[in-house]
Every structure is written in structure tokens, then in C-alpha cells.
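Chain A, query sequence.
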Amino acid sequence: MRFSLYKSTHMLIAILVTVMLIVIITTIQQLYETAFQHASERLTETVGSQAQLIESITFSALEGKAKPYSAETEATALALLLNTYKDHRGFGDTGEFALAKQINGNIEFLLGHLHTSPDNIHNQTRLYQYENVAIPMQLALAGKSGTLVTEDYRGVQVLAAYQPIKLLNYGIVAKIDLAEFRKPFIRASVISISIGVILIFIGAIGFHLITTPLLNRIHRSEYRMRLLLNSTADGVFGINIAGHCTFTNIAGLKLFGYSEKKLLLGKPLVEVLKQPELSGVYADDTSVQTILKAFQATQKDLHYEIPLSDQSDRNFIAEIRLSPIVKDDRCIGAVILIADITQQREAQAQKLLARTVYENIEEGIIVTNANTEIVSVNSAFQQITGYQQEEVLGRNPRFLKSGQQDQSFYASMWQQIIKEGCWKGVIWNKKKSGEIIPLWSSISSVKNPAGKITHFVGAISDISALKAKEEMLEHMAHHDPLTGLPNRLLLDARFELSLQNSARRNSKLAVLFIDLDYFKEINDQYGHKAGDQLLIETAQRLRKLLREEDTVSRLGGDEFVILLPDINNTTSALELAEKIKQSIKRNFTTEDGLTLKVDSSIGIALYPDHGRDTSSLLSRADHAMYIAKKKGKNCISFFQYDNTDETD
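Chain A, predicted structure.
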């Protein structure tokens, strides 16, 4: 860290020195350019005034005569000029005038060069070829005037002003060495730079002493910030306002499968945050480009969930939060937090699915804590029992008991739940309305990793309809579908029970076998519908004549059997048979308004007189009915043993 501080200080000093040098050099350069411009102007003024002076002297020598003039008059004028410049030693340390004329393509200098020989200022110099003369004199003799920087006869850089003397066709040049002109500026630059470096060095030391504690705190803060960024599980990215990545943390590199930060820095955000080409659930999700444009437009905190993919094309759901980076009241970029929330969203989806199933399943669900206090029920439970959730929360499910199952049933049920973890069976519970219903129930215990029971979960289904269907099927299996009377199967069962009771009590039992006379003719004449209505009405008349313990059964067609247990004597059976015959004899009226009339033939067999089992007694009652028909129908006949009809 200290090395970093020293490095920062040295860098600051270097920057300050560089800035200072730039400022000093720029300032001196601007001063130099200004002075150079002024010097050029003064030099131009000087050469102009000298040219005017020479023309005045020449005009005076010519006594005001205009051209042409003779060589003699020119010599007179030249003598005056040379006498004028006799004691002239130029200006400054290096400044001098040059006066020349052109002769047959050559140039003759009229004043001696100051820097070649101090004695030749009064001597005319030799002729020079035109192209060997410095450019300013060439331009002056060509009739032009101005200033320029060039080399003189010594090969030294000079600032020269030139102008023609048109009266004599001369050229005059005034020049000064650039080195003499630059010398004070170079001296000022050296002094200024030296003083500036000293001041900056002193200031840097003071700055270092003052800012070192502050820099230490800043670096400690930066270290903690880097530690925080690199320790967080979320990817952290920085972007500038154009959307290019400026920084990231280790988690950000790992999240997208990069090995080095330099692979990300400077890249557009749309390239860093790759999106998979998915269809279906993610097809209409916001793109990274859209998110970036939204942030650039709003420059506010934004929050999105979008699908992304890493370098290995692993797809995941990302939660993205953008927060602006503001400097000097201006947004310069954003910090982006990216978290892989795939597992959370999948867990939420599973939870939502479970909740949806929980609320929409047809079975009622009831959840209790370990103390069997209800903590939750679903909608189906409320529909089945009639209780709303707020009415049952905190209560023990025992309030639903109907009383039809004893305490031993519940003790056995809970013993199995605790021992085996689950129980299944039918529980008869009472609804809020008081109705008692059968519930197919499944109860399971829920344990924590330590094996301790934390909850109980029960699933219930109302099987009232199933029970009713079972009862209906049971009824159909034992009853005649047309009349609703017991069929042969149920008759046999009741027959056996009655025989056992009669044997135990030593009592009599009578069997009446009834056949309707002329029933076939009614079916043939009026159809089966009329015949069925007659059979139904017959069954109803028979029921009304019997005791609760008696049984009337239809064996099929127009044959009925009545079982009379516990009769005192044969007279009771005969009296009932007579009532039956008279009841059947009454007219029947169908739904179509038909009036039907039938008679009945009745045979009677007695236990134990005529048999001791079902088969024998039914057979002999049937035989007795056959005898009644032979007697002319509409008769009652007891079974009798004889050698013609029946033998035991």
C-alpha cells in the first residue's frame, strides 16, 4: 500500500512538472511569438526609414532632378550615402544593414559586411553572382518588401527585413541574428522552469505529508470495497453511459465463465450479457439492449428478470438491478448487480405448483402441528365439511367425530400412524350441517431430519356417493329390478336365517308360492308394458299385507314367493293366502287407463311338516301351487304327500 502511495505521489509530481513545463513553454512561446511579431514590425519600420533616408539623400544629391541620371550623379549620391553610414555600426550585437545594386546579373554590395572585417565597412565589396546572394537581398532587388527568417552570408539564422530603393534601383536589408533575439527568452525559460520545479517539489512534499493519511484511509476503504465486491455471491459490473463494461468482480467472472477481467473490460454490455435463443416461456422477455436503452433514457434504478447464458452456453434466469453512478450531478454510468436466481424461481414454481394442486385437488387436505392443532386446510376440505378455514385453525380435528366409531377405533388408528407413519381407512365424520358422511382418509406423519414428528397431513374424500352406489349395487344384486322385491339370492339368504331361527325356537315357517292366472294372455293382448305395471302393482299390494319380518320375493315372470317365519299354525298361513287372493283379484288400472283383471293360484308348504331346507320347501310350495291351478285356478292349496304328485 505504501508503495502505491509513493507511486501515486511521484506520478502526481510528474504530472505537475509536465503541466508546469507545458504552461511555461506555452507562455514563453506566446511571448516569443508576440515579441517576434513586434521585432519584425520594428525591423520593417527600420528598413523602411533607412530606405526613405537614402532616397532623400539621393534626391538631394540629384538636386531634385528626375531620372534618367548619369553615373556621375549616382557617384555623388553614393558618396553621400557612404559618408552617412561611415560611423554606423549596425544595431544590437549582431544587427546590420546591407545595401546593394544589381549589375549585369551580378550583385554589388555598397556597404561592407560588418561581421567579416571591421575595416571594410567603407570599402565596396566584390561582385556576387545573383544566386549566391541571400534571399532577402534578391527579393529587395526584385522590387519586393517584407520580412523572413533565413540564413545570411555566414550561414547563420537571421530575421531580415528587405525593401527596394526604387530611385536608385538599390536594395536594402536590415537583419539581426535570431540567437540574439531568442537569448532573453531562453534565459527566462530556464529561470522560470527552475523556480517552478523547486516550487512544485516543495508543494509535492507538503501535499504528500497532508494527503498521506487521507490516501491511507481511501486505500483502506478501497480495499474493503474490493473485499466486499469479491466476497459477494452476486456478479457486480460497472458500465459507462455508452454501455461498455468498466469493472467487474470475481463472482461476475465466474457467473459468465470468464478467467480474466481484461476479457470483459471495454466490451459492450450486450456482448457481456449473452441471451439464449429460447422459445416459449422466455420468448417475449426484455432484451439486454432494451434494458440498456431504458437506463440511458431514465438514468434511474431499474430491476429486471431475464434469461442469460454463460460462455459454456449454460442458460439461467438472472435478476438484474441497475443503479446510476452520478458525478457532479451527471450520470456517468451504472453499477449492475446480477444474481443467478434459477434455483429460487424453480423452487417458487414448484411451490406454486404444489399450492395450486393443494387448492384444486378434489381431496380435502388438513395439516396439523405435532400437537394435532390444525394449521391449514384447503378449499376441498371446506367444501366437504362445510367449515371455513378460520373456523378450524388451532382446533383439534376430533370436533368432526360423528360418534359412529368408538374410542378403540381411534386408538388403533393413531397407534398405526405413530408406528408406521401412515394410516388409511374410512372415518365417519359429521359436517357443519350435522350430516354424517363417510370419508376415505389417509393420514401421514411428517418428520424433520432428526426424525422428530413436526406435522400430520390428512387427505379426505367424501365417499357418500360411492357408498350409495355400493348400496344400490347391493340392492340390485339382491332385488328384482322391476318390482324392487328381494330376488332369489336374497330370498335364499333370508330363508336360511329363518330356518335356523325356527329350528332354534321350535316354531313353524310357511312358504307361499303365488302364480298369476291369465297373465300370459294380458301380455299377449296388451303388451309387456301393461304386464309390467300389473306386476309392480301386485308387488305393492303384497307388501301391504305382510308383517315387517315377512319376506315377499319375485322369482321371475309372474311367480312370487312369500316367506312367513314364526307362524303359530297353518290357519295363519291360510288366512294370509286368502287375503292375498282377494287383493290380487281386484281390478288393476294401468297408466294408459286400461282395466285389467287377474286371479292367483297359491301353493303353501310348511316347515317342518313338508321339509327342513330351502330347496325342499320351495319345491313343494311350487308343487302345491301347480295343484291349485289344476283345480281350476284362483285357488289355494297346501302341499300333500301322495303317490301321484309327490313323495318324500
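The two ends are 126 Å apart (CA to CA). The CA atoms of residues 141 and 228 lie 82 Å apart.
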